[in-house]
Design a protein that fits this description.
The structure is a homodimer. By secondary structure, the first copy, chain A, is α+β, with helices and mostly antiparallel strands. Helices cover about 25% and strands about 25% of the residues of chain A. In chain A, strands 7, 8, 9, 10, 12, 19 and 21 form a 7-stranded mixed beta sheet that branches. In chain A, strands 11-20-13-18 form a 4-stranded antiparallel beta sheet.
Chain lengths: ~400, ~400
Amino acid sequence: MSDLTEPVDRADLVPPHDLGTGDFSLYPIDHAMVAAALEDRTVRVEWDDGHVSRFHFPWLRDNCPCCVHPYTQEQVFELAAAVHEIRPEDVLVSDVGALEVCWSGDGHASRYHPGWLREHCYSEGSRRERLLAPVLWDASTRARPDGFDWGAVVADEEVELAWLSSIRDTGCAVIHGAPLTDDAVGEIAGRIGVLRETNFGRLFDVRVDTDPVSNSNTGLELPPHTDLPTREYQPGLQLLHCLVNDVAGGLSLLVDGYRVAAELRDRSPRFYELLTTHPWDFANRSRTSDYRWRAPMIGVDSDGNWTGVRVGNWLRGPLDAPFDLVEELYEAYRAFEGLSHQARFQIRFRLEPGDCLIFDNRRLLHGRTSLGPGAGRRHLRGCYMDRDELRSRLNMLERRRRTRKVVAGQGP
Amino acid sequence: MSDLTEPVDRADLVPPHDLGTGDFSLYPIDHAMVAAALEDRTVRVEWDDGHVSRFHFPWLRDNCPCCVHPYTQEQVFELAAAVHEIRPEDVLVSDVGALEVCWSGDGHASRYHPGWLREHCYSEGSRRERLLAPVLWDASTRARPDGFDWGAVVADEEVELAWLSSIRDTGCAVIHGAPLTDDAVGEIAGRIGVLRETNFGRLFDVRVDTDPVSNSNTGLELPPHTDLPTREYQPGLQLLHCLVNDVAGGLSLLVDGYRVAAELRDRSPRFYELLTTHPWDFANRSRTSDYRWRAPMIGVDSDGNWTGVRVGNWLRGPLDAPFDLVEELYEAYRAFEGLSHQARFQIRFRLEPGDCLIFDNRRLLHGRTSLGPGAGRRHLRGCYMDRDELRSRLNMLERRRRTRKVVAGQGP
C-alpha cells in the first residue's frame, strides 16, 4: 500500500485550523458560523449561507475534540460513565469562528472547528446531501466498465480517485496496461488495501484450455453469478487480471445485480419482498471444507440500502424454509434468475492481456461466454478483497485532497 | 489445516448408501420410509416413527441428487431454465428404501437417499430440531471459558469437536499447553481454517510493559469492547495466545454481548428496538487508513437471530442519525454500555503462558483489568479469522463422524 501519511502539523496552521477535530483530517471552511444560541435541548448554530444546524447536548459532549488520546485521536471521554448532567452553561462563536461550549457540570470547555461541524451537521438536508447512491446500469446505458491506465493511476492521485470512485459507484472498472506478471493482480489489490485470503488461496488462477488433447477445464459458458455466496462474508471485490487470451470467444459478462433487483421490485413487489426477507441456503461442496450460509438473495441494511446480492445456482444447498413459503420462494427465485439471464441487463466485453477487471462481487453478477471453436488459451489471475478496503483508500485520498485545499488557503 | 478428505467410495457401500446425495456426506439411516404418496402440490412421505414429511415438487426437482457434476457435486440442473412443468408422474419407496420420483415432463427419474431426505425435511418440527441457539451466560452461570488441552485436540477428533462446539455455543474456549512460539497462534488458527489478515497484520502483538523506565504502553484497564466494529466485516473470531505474563493484575475479562442484549430487551424494549434497527457510526482514526462503518450496535438477521454486537466507545465516529432520534439513541447506548460494565455480566480470569483464548469477537466483549502495581511483562500474540471457518471445520468433523457411523453399520 502506498504511503498516505498525514503531512501537516496543525500547530503551524492559521486559526481555527490549529484546533483539533478528533481525527486526522483537515476541514476546509466553506461557511462561517454567524450565531450560536443555547436552546432547551440543543445548541442552535446559524451559518452565513442561511443554513441552520441544531446539535443535541450529548452529541456535542460526545464529540468534544479535545477529549481524545493525543496520539491515537481515539475518544477517552466515556459518555456512559458521565456523572454530571450533560448541559452547557454557555455557548458562543469565538473570534476565530469556532463554536465554544462551556459545560455546566464539570466546567469543561469544548471548541469545535467550523469546517468539521458543518461536515457533521445532521439536519435532514445535510444528511440527504451526504447520501451516496449506486449508479444503476444495464445494457442500454453502459457498454463496458470505465477504463483507466495503470501508469496514470500510479502517477496521479486524481486518476486514482476517479478509478476507485467508478468502482464504488458503478460496481466495476478495468485497468489497462498492468504488468504481465504473476504478482501484478496482488500489487493492484495491495495499492487499495489488504487482500482477502480464502480456501481458494491468496491469489487464484482461472485457466481454461480448449486444446482437446490436454486434460483441461471445459470451455462452456458460465452463467452470471456471484462468487462465494456460501460464505457469511461474501467477498466484496474481485480482481481478474488477464495474462493470456487468444480464444475466439470467452467474453467477460457483467450484470448489475442492483439494477435487476430494482426491476424485480417494480415488476413483482411480492417476489422482491420474499427475496429480501427470507434466507436461502448456500453450500460449497468440497472434499476438504464445508462452507454453508443462509441469507436472503437480496440484502438490504437498516438504512434501506442494498448491501449485496447472492446468486449462484450451483452453489445453493437444499432450501430450508417455512413449508407454506417454499413454492412462492421458488417462483421468486426463478423470476430473479430469469431477469439476470436477459441480454438487456448484460454487458459483454473482451479482456486483453494487461487488462485487470475489478468489480463489486456483492453487487455485480459475473460470467463468461463459451470459449468458442478452435484451440486457444485464456488465463486470468484473480484475488478477493473486502469493499471497505476501497472505502478506506478513497477516504484517505479525499482526506489528502482536503488537506491540499486547506494548506493552499493558508496564504503566504 | 489438517486433512479431512472424504475416505469412502460410495460404490462399495451396501444400498441405499451407494446412492448419491448431491454432496460429499454419508447419511446414517435412523428411520425408514414406510410410504410415499403423490399429493396435489407435494410428495407425502411417512416414516417408521410416525413422522410425516411433505416435499414440494420444485424442491424435489431442484435437489435431484443425480443432476450434479460428477466431480464437484455442484448442481447442473437450472430450475430457472426448466421448460416443462415440474410435476411427478409417479412416486414410490424402492426396495432398498429410497424415494423414487418419476417426472412427467422429461421422464427423468430421481432417487433420494432416506437419511439425506429425513435430514433435510422442512416440516415445522424438523426445522425446530435443527435450530442451534447460543448458550447465554453471565457471572452467575460461568466462571471462565471451557478449557481444552492442545495435545488432546490434535490427537482426538472428538476433543476437537468438543472444543469447537464450545466456541460455537458459548462464544469462547481456552487452549492449555500450546507451544510457547511466535507462530503457535497461527498454527492453532490454521487448524480451524484460513486466517483473516487486516491492516494490523496477519498476526499482532499485545505487549504491555509496566517497567516505568521503558517507553512502553500503558497498563490501564481496557473496558469491554469488540475489536474492529469500524469494519463492514467485523472479524468473527479472535485468538489471543499468552507467551509471557508476570504482572500482578492484567486479568482477561469477557462479557456475553448476547446476554447483555437479552437483558436490555427485557428491561427496555424501546432501547433494544433502537439499537437493533438504527445504525451507529464507527471510525478507526489512523494516519494511514480510514475505515468507517455504520451498523446497528446489536445485529439481528432475517431469521431473528443475533448476528453480533458492535461495542467500543473509542471506536465510534460522530453519530449521523435522524434529528428526532439522537437523544433517545444516546440514552439507549448509555443503557447498553452501562449494563456491559456491570460485574454481574463479566468473567475475569488469568491467562498463563501456553494458554490460547479464542472467542467470538462479534458476540463477546473483551477487556483487561489494570496491570496492577510493580514491574512485570505481559505478552499476548493474536490473530483474527471469520466465524464460518469454524463452522466449516465443525461440519467436516461431523461429516467424518457420520461417515464412521455409516461404515460401522455396513457389517462384515
